[in-house]
């Protein structure tokens, strides 16, 4: 398959007719002081021309900065555009994730595609429809309120004209207002209905649509030899013999960055293996290991950030105090397809990179810094990756490809990571330690809640800085890793969902933010929410049992938010909580969270069976009720919740990165097992639709509740409370 290098901006602008696009406002330009705030990502990309184009041939071009990573968000965004612009879904041509063409919406992360992009597209389309209707009204000298639109044709007063005839040959450049009237619910064709996902047909039929599949004419293959361990330094390497190997075109060394370019992939692999054997390294000893990492976290000097301080007004003494500590290990993305990128350095000095990065603008800027060229000289084009999400190796392999392409200009360079590269060098989800202390009244209700968490940063995305790229830190002129900063306050990263939604009278929540690293870490699905919800919901369950209260009833005592109560009760009803019959070694568990305390409300209930002899946990079924605000695509939301449940079960049952001071030991699927198809339980998901309410992101909502529900169900089955993940057979058996 040839690489589809999308058209340049100039070519793109003149390709169609009609509602012309002029990118006259820089991405993320700040509106002048006093300018009204616009909805979603319109706030930072305020021109309608940045989002929409009425093209010749009866098509509408929709441009978005968010990208498709298997979450189905772009299908939902296209549904929104079709409804609000009043055109058929199939008229819309979607362009996404190209730094030359689309608005900068930041990273596709944090379950923000629908709140940010979906909201922006909704209001941009409504504004554009209103403008087009007013143009027709002026043309006909009629009241615009008497006109309606059907599939891009404006009708009324016995007349009709299409968008394409109305604006042919004209330019329209205007700032969004966010005030265009939204289509009434009874006139929508797509919002609220499941629509076939636009990304699935090619995937289901095995078409070559992933970045790993691209094979442009003239392509050569690159491989990079990684350090043997964190902190290693390349002392020497004899490249003479490697340069003479069959097909080798060039060996590239810059400091401890070591790579090779060859005509064929197998030649590049053989040359990289030979380079690895020839290289001599100095190792950095005394690093923390996966066995000592929790002690290491607690021993660091952190930045202490008090994110919740609510003294109890009634200062009567608590009847009892309960404390517990919880642990989450380093866990990897485990992307099914190892990371890949293509880069070509043109004669015009422009580096064009095809990447599955979720943050193409940040990656562009970071790579520009890495290469010492202007950001305008780097173009990143998103291409879907096989099994890509979170901050995995996508940005790093893009940097690898760019460095090799610069050393071998004129031909596209493809860099494909191997499985051991992906497992050993991707940024993991950070290990965490949490401690909870609760003061209780005579009925077991919480009076005082003290929550503390220890974690390294979960956010080392490129963030426009070469120091966040793997290659950046090992060049001869190295770019230092920026000191992590916890700039977002509550729910920023490590502290996502650290503040409980329960209305306990006294609350104190403290983040102990650690700026150094025991292992490379960054954004993995849900960030700190997974560990925080596991800790909070496990502990609340423990308090319920201590109070001899039903776990659902106990939660409802302190859960006042009606939407939260609704998903919790709905999940319990779906499970059959009130009629469930206890069996030996069978258990049930439930947990709840509102992701980031501002996204989707989610509750999960599980039924498990525990084999006391082997320690093996079998999850028999999972049910989940969710409130994601107004639902655009029910099937898409269910896909997200189901996927989160499956992945969280894999994390919670199996996954932990093992490492010592010689390096990462989890380098393949044998040393880092994940959930298999046969282990996936029956899953039932129901949605509570809230028409008229804001879109709430759902992509990461079920991660935390699932892990906690699992631990709670295991306790119910065998009477043992586990506070350290994952719940492997070995760990379960040791405690029996």
Rounded to an integer in angstroms, the radius of gyration calculated over CA atoms is: 27 Å
Quickly count the helices: 17
Which CATH class of the largest domain is shown? Alpha Beta
Number of DSSP E strands: 26
CATH topology name of the largest domain, in short, is Aldehyde Oxidoreductase, domain 4
Main sheet specs: 7 strands, mixed
Low-confidence stretches: 1-30
Distance between the termini: 55 Å
Average the pLDDT over all residues and give the rounded result. 93
What does this 3D model show about the protein?
The chain is α+β, with helices and mostly antiparallel strands and 736 residues long. 27% of the residues lie in helices and 21% in strands. It has a seven-stranded mixed β-sheet, sandwiched between helices. A five-stranded mixed β-sheet has the order 12-20-19-18-13, sandwiched between helices. A four-stranded mixed β-sheet has the order 21-22-23-26. Helix 12 packs parallel to helix 16 and helix 15 packs across helix 16. The N and C termini lie far apart (55 Å). The relative contact order is 0.11.
Short descriptors:
Aldehyde Oxidoreductase, domain 4, alpha+beta, 736 residues, globular, 17 helices, five-stranded mixed beta sheet, 3 domains, single chain, 27% helix
Write the layout of secondary structure elements.
Layout (H helix, E strand, L loop, with lengths): L8 H7 L36 E4 L3 E6 L8 H13 L6 E5 L16 H28 L7 E3 L2 E4 L2 E4 H4 L33 H5 L15 E6 L7 E4 L3 H4 L4 E7 L2 E6 L2 H14 L1 E3 L10 H7 L3 E8 L9 E9 L11 E6 L5 E5 L4 H12 L6 E5 L11 H14 L5 E4 L2 H7 L6 E9 L5 E11 L49 E9 L14 H18 L4 H8 L3 H14 L10 E9 L6 E10 L6 E11 L6 H20 L5 E2 L2 E2 L17 E6 L15 H16 L10 H7 L1
Parallel strand pairs: 2-3, 7-17, 15-16, 19-20, 23-26
Antiparallel strand pairs: 1-2, 4-5, 5-6, 7-10, 8-11, 9-10, 12-20, 13-18, 14-15, 14-17, 18-19, 21-22, 22-23, 24-25
